Amino acid sequence: MPGMGNSELPIPDGLILRPFRGVRFAVDDPAKVTSPPYDLISDGDVSALLDAHPNNVVRLIVPGRPGTDAQKPPSDPSTSTDQNTINSDNPLVSSQSQIQVSPNSRYQEAGRTLEAWLASGVLVPDEQPALYVYEQRGPGVLQRGIIGDVCLPDPAQRIILPHEDVLPGPITDRLALMSTTQANLEPIFLLYNGQDGAATRLVDEVATHREPLVTAHTEDGLTHRLWVVTDDAEIAAVNADLHPRQALIADGHHRYATYRILQRREHALHAEPTGPGHPAQDGIPSNGREDDGRGAQDSEQVKRSPWDFGLALLVDTDAYPPDLKAIHRVIPGLPLEEAVARAKGSWRVQDLSDLDEGLHALHHTEGPAFLLACENGAHLLTSPDPLQLAQAMPADRSARWNSLNTSILTEFVLPKVWGLRDDEETVRIVHHDPHAAVQLAAATGGTAVILRPLDVADVLAVASGGERVPRKSTSFGPKPRTGLVLRTFAIR
């Protein structure tokens, strides 16, 4: 492949969305082979999705989960997790051994499944490269955007902005999957301010006047429609419009970080050897840091290398404002009574009769507030002691960052009030549903911490200032459905 002998990375000079030959399921009902994003799928969901169709995409995106063919090994090193969060412009796994994929691993099984489905016609590539207009519609929901191959600039270039910290464990997992399958199996979700530009006008014209390629009605009540855009002039107009714009990662921080690590590794694998033990041979710089953005200004290389792009959905927030929901926490093993008793030393605590009353009170409370709940009651935390709060919050962070409820939870409530770390072992995550959080708290002898959603303006301001909100602070929606269109590196 021309240009691949250079281990330096190409530097995109703007937001670029390249057409690609999508790979799609050839089934009568496309909804039955789709799934939610990989990180929202429970073991029960896997069983239900495979009951709907044996070729559901979960066999590819979460191999080794109960119900799929390959079971996760009990001590699979590729899923080991360093508990320290890392900034998503500096993502790396702690050692090369963590990203080795054994021949018998669950990821290898996903690769074999993908190859078999392509060979048998379960999956079929589209004949020519395209951008894909994507619509999600349902009660109170309408979102449209464009799916394509997005360029992978360094976050320091401020073209694609992360807003959340990431963890090595999920990056290791997705890296093993993408490396083995040589594919992007689900898009990341990007938001941008389109200002009624050419890309947005084309999206609406296509969705309003053209026949869809795919229509799928999923169990969540949404209808998903997909159109192809193959006209060179239309694709050029989209890219001319997008080029000067800035995009925010709404969902897919770990996958974007993985895209960039995979890009470095694949370039290094195709580069001329520079000597035994040279850092370029494993794709991870010897100083343990992400590259600083200096690389090859090579437009031909950008066009030719499949690893210089990643599958993405771009949505214009001016035309389709996002729905931002809260992500709740559960602290297993911390009984509600103990959590409340410890909080009384620094917070005002209001006792409430049940969860519904607590949710109403939380919604109507100004300033920092959390609802602690379990089966036997709910308690609203408000009015934190200002001196204790000020001492707990980092002095090197902006005032806006320090005012976020997830920041206060991470820096003050968890470590100072309860003496706990905010890591994957100590803190469980529950998306959106406070009742599900309470059920999990009851099952683990713990406490549910119910949060209000962040404001979109606060998230944008924090990201624009170069900061990251704490992990699992935001849940933008509706998220793209997985399985409508896939991307493999060999089919271009």
UniProtKB/TrEMBL annotation:
Ranges where the record places region Disordered: 62-102, 271-302
Lineage top rank: taxon: Bacteria
Record-linked InterPro entries: UCP033563
Spans through the membrane: none
Composition bias type Basic and acidic residues, residue spans: 288-302
Segments of skewed composition (Polar residues): 77-102
Coiled coil location: none
Protein name as catalogued: DUF1015 family protein
